Amino acid sequence: MALTRVVLLGPPGAGKGTQAKQIIDKLGLVHLSTGDILRDEVSHETELGKTAKGFMDRGELVPDQLIIDMIRGRIEAAEAGFLLDGFPRTTAQADALSEFATIDVVLNITLPREEVVRRLTGRRVCRGCGKIYNLTFNLAEGENACADCGGELYQRDDDKAEVIENRYDVYEDSTTPLIDFYDKLGVLRTLDGSAGSECVFSEIIDILTT
Ligand code: AP5
User: Fold this and answer.
1) Separation of CA 32 and ligand 1 centre (Å)
2) pLDDT tens digits for the chain (210 residues)?
3) CB 177: neighbour CB atoms within 10 A?
4) Ligand 1, closest atom to CA 132?
5) Assign residue 193 a region: left if phi > 0, alpha if psi is -120 to 50, beta otherwise?
6) Is the pTM of this model over 0.90?
7) Would residue 189 show up in a list of annotated catalytic residues for this protein?
8) How many Å lie between the centroid of ligand 1 and the Cα of residue 12?
């Protein structure tokens, strides 16, 4: 039987969003990306979005309780299964999650700092459908329309070199303790994120379906 309560863990740029889109297409899980939800709140200038924006622009984490309150109902509503992307990111968030959901598997995608910086400076995202591109392999310099929907491609505000470095520091300080946390629970599977995207995807599907 397929594993249906899944967490994607990994540093910024490891490929969580890229893999998530393919996994949900194949397995039909509900994709819950705290980064995407927050960016939507920011673009709609909600109270949460206004509070979150400063943290996000500096590459810091949004306070735990705001995130837990934002995501809890969505997880509880996803009865057929969910794919958490970007949550949990601190031990306080992981403790809260364990009170309202049992996790089948945590996919820990690794990527060294230098590769994170290289990837994120080249990332472009479609405003229309959210498709993720990279100047290094599937986008020519100057190309600014999505091949799927024609939407405008943009660079995220937090994909500036100095912010990327801070995001990686925050990942190391606040999120890496979760590797041990989930390993002790026996649900951790680690994948090499520097492998090609198709290779990572096929490894993930093997883990989730066998
Ligand atoms: P969030 O949006 O979650 O950002 P992130 O975790 O930093 O991850 P990214 O989206 O940058 O990277 P990704 O792993 O999805 O990589 P992608 O697939 O795009 O969070 C943003 C901010 O929101 C946080 O900094 C924080 O402020 C706040 N926030 C969110 N959740 C929070 C929480 N739980 N608590 C508190 N605050 C929270 O790939 C990157 C690039 O690499 C792309 O260009 C892609 O094309 C390319 N690529 C992908 N895979 C490969 C591959 N295998 N080979 C080569 N290139 C690849």
Assistant:
1) 13
2) 578 999 999 999 999 999 999 999 999 999 999 999 999 999 999 999 999 999 999 999 999 999 999 999 999 999 899 999 999 999 999 999 999 999 999 999 999 999 999 999 999 999 999 999 999 888 887 899 999 999 999 999 999 999 999 999 999 999 999 999 999 999 999 999 999 999 999 999 999 998
3) 12
4) 46
5) alpha
6) yes
7) no
8) 4
| Atom of ligand 1 minimally distant from the CA of 200 | 53
Q: Which residue from 36, 62, 160, 203 has its CB within 8 A of the most atoms of ligand 1, so it is best to mutate?
A: 62
CA distances from 37 to 20, 23, 26, 88, 195 (A): 14, 18, 22, 14, 28
Q: Looking at ligand 1, which residue's alpha carbon is closest to its atom 1?
A: 35
- Token readout for 17 is 């969003």
Q: Is the CB of 4 under 6 A from ligand 1?
A: no
DSSP 41-77: HHHTT-HHHHHHHHHHHHTPPPPHHHHHHHHHHHHHH
Contact present, 51 and 155 (Cβ < 8 Å)? no
